[in-house]
Amino acid sequence: MEQADSCRRVAIEAVTDVEPPALYELIESTLESASMLPGALTLKSAGAVAPSETTLRNGDEPDDGIVTHAAGVQLIYEGLRLTRSLAHEEPWDDADGDTDVDGDMEILAADILVARGFYLLARTDAADKAVRTVQAFGREQTHRLDERDGDDPAATTRDATLERDVLELAVLAGAAAVDENPSPSLLERAEEIAAAAGTSFPSAERSTIGAESRVSEHSLEESTTDRATSVTDT
Q1: Distance from C-alpha of 154 to C-alpha of 14, rounded to nearest angstrom
Q2: By C-alpha distance, which of 128, 138, 104 is closest to 22?
């Protein structure tokens, strides 16, 4: 729980200067209710590849720099997820003027979330992957909207590219936070988690990290893959 709370705290701190208050409240509520799986996997990946002599590898809480990496991943995901939702629902097509205003606020919120996530990951070894994640999202959603068939299995596959890329980003960002490279097996584990998750990560309540949890690359590789919550179960 403490690790997930730390990630959420840093993510919210990154947007505290957003104005007007209504926009900040929308962003804050989005983060408060968000699944912490991307941030959690970032933290666990850092612990998994950290040198064996470090306190992080032995289960201690990550320092602020590592949590900042996790918050950056989380912010980018929340912004892109919100963008995807808006693209599919198209609230501006509703005749209700209030719906138009809500849609405008949400697209602003999405832009801010992604921008702040980039800011937190700037000048890190994960920055290039963050850029590629957003570029891939844009391409997939463009094709998705051109096809205009949300029931097509190909559309769901395109949507799920976001979760797959974000979890890969999480592994890379976690490793970069401790100046290490992720192993192929750790990247494969992230892909398995993404495949189980599809287009929806578990709820905030189910994606927290127990304070007593100890992390290792072995535990990530060997844990079961039938539930998307496996890396963050308490």
Answers
A1: 35
A2: 104
Give the pLDDT confidence of 10-37 residue by residue, as tens digits.
999 999 999 999 999 999 999 999 999 9
Task: Give the integer Cα–Cα distance in Å for 98 and 108.
Answer: 16
Going by C-beta distance under 8 Å and a sequence separation of 6 or more, which residues neighbour residue 125? 172, 175, 176
Whose CA is closest to 177, among 77, 75, 48?
Answer: 48
Say how many C-beta atoms besides its own lie within 10 A of residue 54's C-beta. 12
Residue pair 26/113 in contact by the 8 Å Cβ criterion: no
What whole-number distance in Å separates Cα of residue 195 and Cα of residue 141?
A: 18
Q: How far apart are CA 230 and CA 147, in angstroms?
A: 34
Is the overall model pTM greater than 0.90, yes or no?
A: no
pLDDT tens, position by position, 52-89: 777 676 667 788 899 999 999 999 999 999 999 998 77
Summary mean pLDDT of the chain: 82
Cβ–Cβ < 8 Å for 206, 80: no
Query: Which residue, 169, 168, 202, is CA-closest to 188?
Result: 168
Rg (CA), the chain: 17
SS3 133: helix
Q: Tell me the C-alpha distance between 175 and 10, whole Å.
A: 19
